[in-house]
Amino acid sequence: MKEKEFETWQTTRQQGTFKFILIRGLLSWGLPMFVIMTFIVNRSEREFTALYLAVNAAVWGVAGIAFGALMWHITENRFNRELDVRSGTSSE
Fold first, then answer.
1. pLDDT > 90? residue 23
2. CA 10 to chain centre
3. How far apart are CA 41 and CA 90, in angstroms?
4. Is the Cα torsion angle 9, 10, 15, 21 positive or negative in sign?
5. pLDDT tens profile 50-81
6. What is the Rg, in whole angstroms, of the alpha carbon atoms belonging to the chain?
């Protein structure tokens, strides 16, 4: 992990898991994917009913939350390995 990434993650993790998942997962990934997949990719295939929009919003909302949680987990593991390396307790 590069020094800039390390410092950025230190700041990000202080803001908490919930905020990270909300911003990076749901709003930065889930919402754009909802818009792209619902209104651009599938625009000619379906009518835009309330049910269609609700289902797509739910699917991409859950996917955004899962994406954010996965990114948190991956980055937190990388950060903890880097902490071990820097403190000299690495098993590598």
1. yes
2. 17
3. 46
4. positive
5. 998 999 999 999 999 999 999 999 999 999 99
6. 18
Q: State which of 26-35, 39-48, 82-91 shows the largest mean pLDDT.
A: 26-35
Distance CA 8, CA 40 (A): 34
CA distance 59 to 45: 18
Please give the Cα distance from 44 to 27 (Å, whole number). 25
Average pLDDT over residues 31-52: 86
Cα distance between residue 17 and residue 20, in whole Å:
5
CA angle 26, 31, 36 (to 5 degrees): 145
Tokens of 33: 């994917």
Burial class from Cβ neighbours inside 10 Å (0-12, 13-18, 19+) for residue 60 reads buried
What are 3-19's pLDDT values in tens digits? 999 999 999 999 999 99
